[in-house]
Amino acid sequence: MNLLYVLAAEGPNGKWIPSDVKEFYWGGAAFLIVLGLLIWKLGPVISKAMNDGQQNAIEEATAAEAAMAEAQQAEASLRAELGDPEAASQRIIADAHEAANQLRVDQNARTQDMVNSMWERAQNEVGSLGAAATSDLSSEVSSKALTAAEAVVASNLDDATQMELIEDYISKVGSA
Amino acid sequence: MSDRHTGYARAILEVAQAEGNVSGISREVFSIGQAVAGSEELRTTLSDQRIPAARRQQIVEDLLDGKASSATVGLVSMVVGAGRGADLPNIADQLDQLAATGGGRQVATVRSAVALSDDQQQRLAAALKQSTGNDVDLRVIVDTSVVGGLVTTMGDTVIDGSIRSRLSKLRETL
Hints:
The complex is a heterodimer. Chain A is mostly helical. Chain A contains 4 helices and no strands. The longest helix of chain A has 72 residues, at 85-156. Chain A is rod-shaped and about 195 Å long. A 4-stranded mixed beta sheet of chain B has the order 2-1-3-4, sandwiched between helices. The model of chain B has no long low-confidence stretch (mean pLDDT 88). The interface between A and B is medium-sized, with 24 and 24 residues.
């Protein structure tokens, strides 16, 4: 239609209908031919483009809906996993307290066992050391006493005593 | 005792019998054996093969000069010259046993802290004869570890009258 306006504006007679009817017909025919060619060649392309755009829009909308559904599902799953954050936190703290208490109990038991073992071992060692010390002391006292006795005997063993011992020995052998 | 000790002891005994002085020679050999047993230096010197035999024999003769009969000196010199100086204690013990057995006598080894006089030795030999019924040859060894008194050994029999044994009993009691 714009073409008609142009044609009309450019008409030599200043009217929108050319003065020459043939020209009008030829012009109309040419217009129709051009229009037909346009429809014939461009129509499918335009239609296809419009269909593609519509299809893309539909697919995008479908994908968006799917993504939204997936996000909602993930959110629901996450919420299900987390549950109540406060409750989960308290449960974790409670577990930690329980583990700490058990650890303390075990540690106390081990410490007590170790103390008992050390105490028993120490008592045994003290007993052994006491016995050894008593034995050593007894041996030491005996040795000292014997050394003292030897010293006393040696100091008293003069020649006269030696001779007396020998004579006593000879007389005892003779009388045996 | 080895056969070697017995062989040397028999050789010495035969010489002593030939000399008619078995008791005296065996007593002197015993004393020399005790001296060798009590001196590591003497034992080593008399058995040192690096020292010529003549030199070792000269040492023996110098040591025994005037202290033993010439027969004893010659016999001991023979043993030392043969390189058996270190065996003298065992040879002397073996000689004592052979001499005692051959003469019907018994050898008594007496340990004393002090030396015994001849009179004490005779009375002790008489006392031992009275106790055992056999004639006894005494071998007196001065041993200060006895402390006091006497210890007599005759074969397997030990008559211990020493102060050392009394102190040992005291130690066991304590």
